Amino acid sequence: MGVKGFEIGSHVGEKNLDHKDFDPLYKTCQDLGVALFVHPWDMHMWGGRLQKYWMPWLVGMPSETAQAICCVLMGGVLERFPRLRLCFAHGGGAYPQIRGRVAHGYNVRPDLCATDCKTAPTELDGLLWADSLVHDPHALELLISIVGKEKICLGTDYPFPLGELQIGKIAEDCVSLSDNDRDELLWGNAVKLFDLEEQKLFKMGF
């Protein structure tokens, strides 16, 4: 049908993204070259102390995304489907900040963390994609150091209030990016993620 990508949630009911029920979806997407964009959801179900100060969105969303990434990495999803293009919303949520902790846990407690994956999570960094919606140039620098500048696409979260108010400003303020790197982040990497035809886009006026 020519579809280039789908959006999925960070879990489905009680099933995390490493559940084997999703393997047919992952295999089909890998075979067709279709990207999957993972967005957190269902944070209001956490309840309790997260109910005040909009914390389901401010704290719950980043945590939910980090959990999804951990499940993908330690659940062996990218071992089974190394060409699968999974792009995580909001710069991968809290995962870039806890990456070292996850790696340490994998090393010191393999009995708990390495049950479904033989590859350390940090060795799979280069297979992850993320959007750039991190609200802070320093956070974008951290994300670049982990997944690589070629695996980050512009994120806007439009039209929601947590979206970027000046589209692309975080990328513009990121001093480590060259002009070419910035262009790639703002549009070029998305062309690669969704396997689009660049010349056709130009003809269409994009």
TrEMBL record:
It catalyses: 2-amino-3-carboxymuconate 6-semialdehyde + H(+) = 2-aminomuconate 6-semialdehyde + CO2. Keywords: Decarboxylase, Lyase, Metal-binding, Zinc. It is an enzyme of class 4 (lyase). This is 2-amino-3-carboxymuconate-6-semialdehyde decarboxylase. It comes from the Eukaryota. GO terms for biological process: negative regulation of quinolinate biosynthetic process; secondary metabolic process. Signal peptide: none annotated. Residues 2-196 form the Amidohydrolase-related domain. InterPro entries: ACMSD, Amidohydro-rel, Metal_Hydrolase. It holds the Pfam family Amidohydro_2. One of its GO terms (molecular function) is metal ion binding. Pathway: Secondary metabolite metabolism; quinolate metabolism. One of its GO terms (cellular component) is cytosol. Its EC number is 4.1.1.45. Converts alpha-amino-beta-carboxymuconate-epsilon-semialdehyde (ACMS) to alpha-aminomuconate semialdehyde (AMS).
